[in-house]
Amino acid sequence: MRLKSIAIFLIAFYLLEFPKMSAATPLRETCDLPHNLQGKIATEYPGARLLTLSDLDERDKKLFESDHADSCPGLVYVDFYGDGKPTLALVLISKLEAKEKALLVVAREVGGNWSVALLDTVDESEPVVWVQDAGEYRDVYGKKKIRATRPVIVFCGYDSWAVLYAWTGKVVAKIWLAD
């Protein structure tokens, strides 16, 4: 009887108090950059903004959400270099002249400072980014193979193309998964 009373109390406490705790500490938006990275991105890529779900057409939005739930299509945390340091893959939308471009950028925090590297650029597209586990990957043409020992970044324009990026320890290797 005593165990039943404790269980009822815990359930009631959870149901009554958890909503208050959740409201008191708002969750971070999935497409929010770390505050100290925002300035670096603004300096390196003036006028660029992070790709969000609202940038995707309805079909691409449904595809992304079905595979990646509530993730941000333009931001993913990844241990790309295998050193455990905070590293993000970003899709930035930049309008240069009259054309819109999508930029794939890797940002890495070391000692409180962010460094950024441009991996790829695509004209007039809303590609998404995600992480896949380390493993062996073959290109769509059957000519190249990457044996990744760390998580990899996938940059994808749905129904069109997908490119995989892996850190080899010295350079970033790239293969086409779909074309």
Characteristic terms for this protein:
179 residues; alpha+beta; five-stranded antiparallel β-sheet; four-stranded antiparallel β-sheet; 3 helices; 11 strands; 25% helix; 40% strand; globular; disordered N terminus
What's a quick, concise take on this entry?
The model is unreliable at 2-28 (pLDDT under 50). The protein is 25% helix and 40% strand.
Major sheet size, sense and barrel closure: 5 strands, antiparallel
Domain module count: 1
The percentage helix is 10-25%
Order of SSEs, N→C? HHEHEEEEEEEEEE
Class by alpha and beta content:
alpha+beta
Query: What coarse outline follows from CA principal-axis ratios?
Result: globular
Helix segment tally: 3
The total strand number stands at 11
Q: Show unreliable segments.
A: 2-28
In round numbers, the mean pLDDT is: 85
Radius of gyration computed on alpha carbons: 20 Å
Task: Indicate the proportion of strand residues.
Answer: 35-45%
The span between the termini is 65 Å
